[in-house]
Every structure is written in C-alpha cells, then in structure tokens.
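Figure 6 in text form: structure in, sequence out.
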C-alpha cells in the first residue's frame, strides 16, 4: 500500500520520487492529482498505467511560475492577461506548444497544443522545488469518481502509487475550467472550478462553449466521474432503496425513505456543493445503493461544472466489466 505523508513534511520525499521517474499523488486546490515529470516519457507512461487511462487523452502540465509556463507554451497578450488574473488557480489554458518545450509527446497526445495550469500551495511549491513542469491528471482510476482527499486516493489507487501526499480536503473540489485560446477567440473545453462569468469579466469577450461539450442529453456523453451506483438526475422523489444526494433546503418527495441522505449544500451554495460533490458521491456509493437519486442543482457559478460532472456520472457505461472489476 502507498505511504501517506502530510504535506507539511512531504516535499523532499515527493521531489526525490519524481526525480526517480515515479508518480506521486499530490493535493491541489481542485482535486488530488497524480503527478510525474512531464519531460520523462517513462514517468508519464506510469500515470496512464496507474489510472488505466487511454493514451489519446492529453494531460495538463502544471507549472510553478510564468517563466516555466513560457518554456512550454506560447502566450498571446490575452493569454497573459488571463494568467495574470487567475493564476495560481483553477484555470487551465490550452495554448500552442512552445518550440523545444520540455514536454513529452505522451503528455500532449501528440498535439501541437498544451494544457497549462499553475496550482496553489503544496503542488506549486513541489513544482518549484523540482524545477520542471509536472503532468498531472486527477488521482483516480480513469472514468471513476475524482478524489478530494488522501483517503479517497488511497482507496482507489493505493496499490498503484508509492506515495500519497495528504493536504486535507480539496478547497475547490472540482477539476479546473479548461479554456482554449485561438487569437481573440475563447472556447471552454470543460467547465470547472472557475466560473465562466469571472473569465468573461477579465477577457472582455464572450466565452464560447464547445459544441457537444454542453450537456444536451446524457446519451451523448461518454461516461466519466462514475460511481458504482447509477445516478438518477433532477429527482423530485425517492424510489425504493435509493440513496439521495440533496441540494438546498427543499427536499424531494419521500426523502425520508432514502436509505442514505447527504446534502451538497443545505444553503444552496454552488461553491460549497462543488467541495462536497465527489466525497458525497463516494460516501453514498459505499452504502451499496443501486441508484443514487440527485436533486436538481443550481446552474449558476460553479453549478455549471457540478451539473457537467453529474451528467457524465449518469451517462450510460460502456465498460461495465472494467468498472466492476476495480
Ligand atoms: P484531466 O482529465 O482532468 O486530466 O484533464 C485533462 C483534459 O484536459 C483532457 O481530457 C483534455 O480535455 C484537456 N486537455 C489537456 N491538454 C489539452 C490539449 N493540448 N488540447 C486540448 N485539450 C487538452
Ligand atoms: Mg479526471
């Protein structure tokens, strides 16, 4: 099983493992990440192996400062402005890959663009100590619920990583917002921990939503963030044996019949709901309920990211055998 070390004492141990080409699970403000040296193909391959992640899915590169960011990506004036406003923080910018960038092609899936983010706290300090960018997707088995605590990482990947750094509960709770910048054109590739309205205020232009990225119907989405139980969204009542994931002060009918109940945010605050989303999903899943009924969640602010994750978690599963085996 993985060693778990508090972030207060873990910096040198984590740095040494990364230098040896190993992966380390680290806390970030969004969710826990599974990090490796972005320039070392073997190290990056270990991320894909531990997560059982398809290799066509690129990884986000995490940097400690703007000098490091400029070594891997080309920043337009608009990209500079957004980085200035929101970094360190839960915003990933997809930018042209810089010539000679110390990033292995496995990280970008061979694309000529790279996703870049500057995280806060331990993650940023570790990258600074390491001196090079770290590739880091979420620290969970591909397709499953993301981890927002060291315990959740251990439960999922404990036999597949050597070191988990414990930084307590993730303060944002959902993954970063991913924004592609082409000239003056901004496209949100994934809603996340930074609300689009905040980006538009700084950018002074409207952010486009990626076609198909918008949640139109669950059937159009590939399954992701999925618990073992199936999810029933926008539930206005509770069925026999179902667990209930609530939001706000108004309860679904027959809520008292639920085999378990957790509320994302009793006061209806999307920020609080984002922090609780993955841990509540995991906890309700652990009750063994076959179905988790989910009350309607506000779409404002971080509500867009929450509804995106819930819709993907509710999407039909293509690989039930893989899922039940893990
Ligand atoms: P995660 O699954 O949280 O590791 O986030 C990685 C996601 O970032 C990928 O699934 C892509 O959607 C996105 N991404 C990373 N790098 C790029 C890139 N170069 N171009 C487009 N999207 C990217
Ligand atoms: Mg993920």
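Output sequence:
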């Amino acid at each position: 099983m993985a060693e778990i070390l508090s972030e207060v004492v873990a910096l040198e141990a984590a740095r040494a493992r990364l230098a040896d080409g190993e992966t380390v699970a680290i806390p970030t403000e969004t969710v826990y990440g599974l990090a490796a040296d972005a320039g070392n193909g073997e190290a990056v391959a270990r991320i894909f192996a531990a997560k059982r992640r398809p290799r066509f899915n690129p990884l986000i590169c995490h940097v400690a400062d703007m000098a490091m960011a400029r070594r891997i990506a080309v920043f337009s004036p608009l990209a500079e402005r957004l980085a200035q406003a929101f970094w360190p923080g839960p915003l990933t910018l997809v930018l042209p890959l810089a010539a000679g960038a110390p990033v292995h092609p496995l990280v970008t899936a061979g694309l000529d663009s790279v996703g870049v983010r500057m995280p806060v706290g331990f993650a940023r300090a570790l990258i600074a100590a390491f001196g090079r960018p770290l590739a880091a997707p979420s620290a969970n088995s591909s397709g499953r619920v993301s981890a927002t605590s060291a315990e959740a990482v251990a439960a999922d990947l404990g036999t597949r990583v050597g070191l988990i750094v414990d930084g307590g509960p993730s303060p944002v709770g959902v993954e970063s917002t991913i924004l592609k910048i082409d000239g003056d054109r901004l496209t949100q590739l994934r809603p996340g921990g930074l609300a689009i309205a905040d980006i538009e205020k700084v950018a002074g232009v409207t952010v486009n939503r990626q076609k198909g990225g918008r949640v139109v119907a669950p059937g159009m989405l590939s399954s992701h963030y999925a618990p073992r139980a199936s999810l029933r969204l926008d539930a206005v009542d509770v069925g026999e044996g179902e667990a209930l994931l609530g939001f706000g002060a108004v309860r679904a009918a027959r809520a008292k019949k639920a085999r378990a109940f957790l509320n994302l945010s009793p006061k209806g605050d999307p920020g609080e709901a984002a922090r609780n989303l993955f841990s509540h999903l995991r906890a309700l899943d652990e009750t063994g309920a076959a179905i988790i009924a989910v009350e309607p969640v506000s779409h404002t602010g971080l509500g867009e990211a929450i509804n995106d994750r819930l819709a993907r978690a509710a999407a039909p599963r293509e690989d039930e055998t893989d899922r039940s085996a893990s």
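Caption detail: The radius of gyration is 19 Å.
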